Amino acid sequence: MKFLLILQGAGDPRLPREVFERAAGDAGELVSGELLADPQLSVQLPAGEPSRIDGYYVIDVEDRDRAVELARLLPDARTGGRSVEIRALMHPAAVDL
């Protein structure tokens, strides 16, 4: 199952995430991940306050429990004012023709 780990919150988003990246990478479960540019540089339609999302990882793991286990390795899950949201990615039900 693929999950999106959404890094969000206040403070500096550039936290050391090597432990997570090594664990997920060595297990072959890390698909991708990026930090996002400053929200002040974003455009939101309709106009509103920028989100507090600072980055993300996509992981491909056996189940939700493994996704939670990996997310707990992220410093965002242990830093005041920051959090990690874990969301399953939807897969199309249709078969490729």
Salient structural properties:
single chain; 97 residues; alpha+beta; four-stranded antiparallel sheet; 4 strands; globular
Structural summary, described in words:
- By secondary structure, this protein is an alpha+beta fold.
- It is built from two helices and four strands, in the order βαββαβ.
- The chain has helices spanning 18-26, 64-71, and strands spanning 2-9, 30-35, 53-60, 82-88.
- A four-stranded antiparallel beta sheet has the order 2-3-1-4, covered by helices on one side.
- The longest helix is centred in the first third of the chain and has 9 residues, at 18-26.
- The protein is globular and about 40 Å long.
- It comes from Kribbella karoonensis.
- This is YCII-related domain-containing protein.
Q: Biggest sheet: strands, sense, closure?
A: 4 strands, antiparallel
Fraction of residues in H or I helices:
10-25%
Q: Roughly how many Å apart are the termini?
A: 23 Å
What is the approximate shape?
A: globular
Give the helix tally. 2
Mean pLDDT: 92
Backbone structural class? alpha+beta
Computed Rg: 15 Å
Give a count of the beta strands, DSSP E runs of length 2 or more. Answer: 4
**Can you tell me the residue ranges where pLDDT is under 50 for at least 5 consecutive residues?**
none
Strand order of the largest sheet: 2-3-1-4
From N to C, what is the helix and strand string? Answer: EHEEHE
In short:
The chain is α+β, with helices and mostly antiparallel strands and 97 residues long.
